[in-house]
């Protein structure tokens, strides 16, 4: 794959453009439910008040207040992250830890005629890249791509992903992971998505009617960075609570709908020009010429978090999974499975089979990334044992008397 200087310059220009919600969106008083206990219909509301000015989305952590901690422990409530709370901070242990990474993946064609999903699973990024990029330990890289209009775009991006995200990327030189390093890494990932999109525009083997959604997850030491364009999803399990690390880019998501409408996108129900997503790589027959603001874009949302001992695993998957189950449903299913067999490969397969049982009509691809081992005390709860006691002859006689009313 050849990436020209013109393409790099165009990507850098696009990276500098702000992806913040429009002033119209900021002026709305939109109420997002960010914590729902399914069994009790109980919720916490976060309101965006008139005149608020959300910053560029940088997910760090999600705050779970003490008033709901009991409900979370009982019901494993869902924490949904939306555009308006991406800069919120989770109050959890500041002690950093080194994740113990292992993963498993599973894919199924489902009821479709062809398989258009692709994925990448690298548990040891340092060994994979060699001297190309000085990684902290541990380091890992994962990605899922959901193609549409054919599989060519997804196959192309998978084939060239390492070149786009690491070989050709303007990665920070320093090995110190500080705020400057992490911000540079975010910018590098945004640029990689845009370069991938431009590469598809110039790749003659890929039709202009073909495209793909994309989600990447990068682990560097105790830092997790997720970049997403489309409706694939990444969900972190934090002590049994599902924390969304990505936002589905669909017209049902209000900030995306407003952005598309302001740019004159053709909306038919929940579809943009026939697509169910508002962000994707490729699809150049639906995008405006370079330099013009298009309703369908490839710019990703990038979110990052500092991992702690409370973070158990990460699930990333294509929309065939999420169309049939909530983030919390998936997390709870995987968590129960890991506590039975401690095998992420088996958990990934169980998740796909559950989606099939729930009548998913799409291709299905999922990766389960374990960040720590299940607590042995919680994995194998001890069962209470009862000892059979025998009655003496005298006690048996007295009991018989009582029962007979003597």
UniProtKB/TrEMBL annotation:
E.C. no: 3.1.3.16
SUPFAM superfamilies in UniProt: PP2C-like
Keyword match Kinase: no
Cofactor: Mn(2+); Mg(2+)
InterPro entries, A to Z: PP2C (IPR015655), PP2C_BS (IPR000222), PPM-type-like_dom_sf (IPR036457), PPM-type_phosphatase-like_dom (IPR001932)
Keyword terms, alphabetized: Hydrolase, Magnesium, Manganese, Metal-binding, Protein phosphatase
Span of domain PPM-type phosphatase: 102-371
Enzyme class: hydrolase
Superkingdom of the source species: Eukaryota
Transmembrane segments: none
Signal peptide stretch: none
Record protein name field: protein-serine/threonine phosphatase
UniProt organism field: Xanthoceras sorbifolium
Source organism phylogeny: Eukaryota, Viridiplantae, Streptophyta, Embryophyta, Tracheophyta
């Amino acid at each position: 794959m050849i990436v020209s200087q013109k393409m790099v310059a165009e990507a850098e220009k696009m990276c500098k453009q702000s992806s913040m919600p429009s002033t119209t969106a900021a002026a709305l008083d939109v109420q997002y439910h960010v914590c729902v206990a399914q069994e009790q219909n109980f919720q916490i509301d976060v309101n965006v008040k008139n005149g608020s000015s959300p910053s560029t989305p940088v997910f760090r952590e999600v705050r779970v207040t003490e008033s709901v901690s009991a409900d979370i422990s009982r019901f494993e409530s869902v924490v949904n992250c939306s555009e308006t709370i991406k800069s919120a901070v989770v109050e959890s242990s500041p002690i950093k830890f080194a994740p113990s990474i292992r993963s498993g993946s599973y894919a199924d064609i489902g009821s479709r005629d062809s398989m258009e999903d692709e994925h990448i699973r690298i548990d040891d990024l340092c060994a994979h890249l060699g001297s190309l990029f000085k990684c902290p330990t541990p380091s890992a890289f994962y990605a899922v791509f959901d193609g549409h209009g054919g599989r060519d775009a997804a196959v192309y991006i998978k084939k060239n992903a390492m070149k786009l995200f690491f070989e050709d990327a303007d990665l920070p030189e320093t090995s110190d992971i500080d705020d400057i390093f992490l911000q540079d890494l975010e910018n590098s990932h945004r640029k990689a998505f845009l370069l991938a999109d431009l590469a598809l525009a110039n790749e003659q083997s890929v039709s202009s009617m073909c495209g793909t959604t994309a989600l990447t997850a990068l682990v560097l030491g105790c830092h997790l960075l997720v970049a997403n364009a489309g409706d694939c999803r990444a969900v972190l399990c934090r002590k049994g609570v599902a924390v969304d690390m990505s936002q589905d880019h669909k017209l049902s998501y209000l900030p995306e709908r407003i952005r598309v409408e302001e740019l004159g996108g053709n909306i038919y129900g929940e579809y943009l020009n026939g697509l169910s997503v508002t962000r994707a790589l490729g699809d150049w027959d639906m995008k405006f010429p370079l330099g013009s603001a298009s309703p369908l874009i490839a710019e990703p949302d990038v979110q990052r978090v500092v991992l702690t001992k409370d973070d158990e695993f990460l699930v990333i998957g294509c929309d065939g999974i999420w169309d049939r189950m909530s983030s919390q449903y998936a997390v709870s299913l995987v968590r129960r499975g890991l506590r039975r067999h401690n095998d992420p490969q088996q958990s990934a397969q169980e998740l796909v089979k559950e989606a099939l049982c729930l009548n998913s009509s799409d291709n299905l691809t999922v990766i389960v990334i374990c960040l720590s081992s299940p607590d042995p005390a919680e994995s194998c709860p001890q069962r209470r044992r009862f000892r059979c006691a025998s009655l003496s002859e005298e006690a048996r006689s007295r009991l018989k008397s009582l029962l007979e009313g003597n």
